[in-house]
Amino acid sequence: MKLMPRLALAACILPLALGLAPAGADPGSGPFRGLDFCGEPVPLNRTEVLKAVDQNLLLLTEARGRIWLTLRRSPRFLPLVEKALAQAGVPADLKYLPLAVTNLSPAYNNIGRGLWRLRAAEAKELGLRVDNVIDERLDPVAATAAAARRLAALKETYGYWTSALAAHLLGEQVFQQAVAEAGGETNFYQLYFPDGQDQLPMTVLAGKILFREPLAFGYVHEPARAWPAWPGRRATTPAPTTIKSLAAEYGWDYKAFRDMNPHLLSPAVPAGTAVNY
After folding, report:
1. What is the pTM of this model?
2. Does domain 34-225 have CATH number 1.10.530?
3. Is 140 left (phi over 0), alpha (psi -120 to 50) or beta?
4. How many Cβ atoms sit within 10 Å of the Cβ of residue 60?
């Protein structure tokens, strides 16, 4: 399939993606049709919500290099994420957080780290090891299981998955301040956040629009350029060892084994460490 030039493509797609359909059009039509998050309807009839999703969808579609890279990483990391979310009994829509925010990069490092943008204190509370030897936030398997537990707990606290998403991304202190200011209201869409802090959760909602139908935005699947599947095997070291020894034991070259285990920050590996092979 021959793709249109970038500007022509944007001219065709963005008016629809951004809700610039003819006057009176239903904002729930086209790319926005049936938009919900974890089964909770997104109130696109509220002007500020529609504008925020519009804005973040535009920013995502303009970051074409990042989106292509995310799509190429998807065969490697997305099945792992989807399986872990299903095992934890939480909604599959939570996968749009690592798709839209961290671009499915275990090495993501901006406020939080890893696929799920976990802060160090949060990760430790969830039982992950975070120090100068091991940082399990960078382990896609351990981090996804921990993030699923955290988001489920936040949903229990605040009553909405969208609010759980916001509390996770913004930090509970920020979210609780907004709740207190609103007199105890916990619905994300009815809370006020200064300085555009509410835009990050909106990025995830925009990410759902884009990633559920990337072809509609000009992203054609290219199997030959996709990253290889995650190996899916785990082991725990029974005694202190080294990355070099583990790579040899499991039949990988040193670099490939390190790439599968970004949470190993030191060549020396303590006993009781989970590794991927």
Report:
1. 0.88
2. yes
3. alpha
4. 22
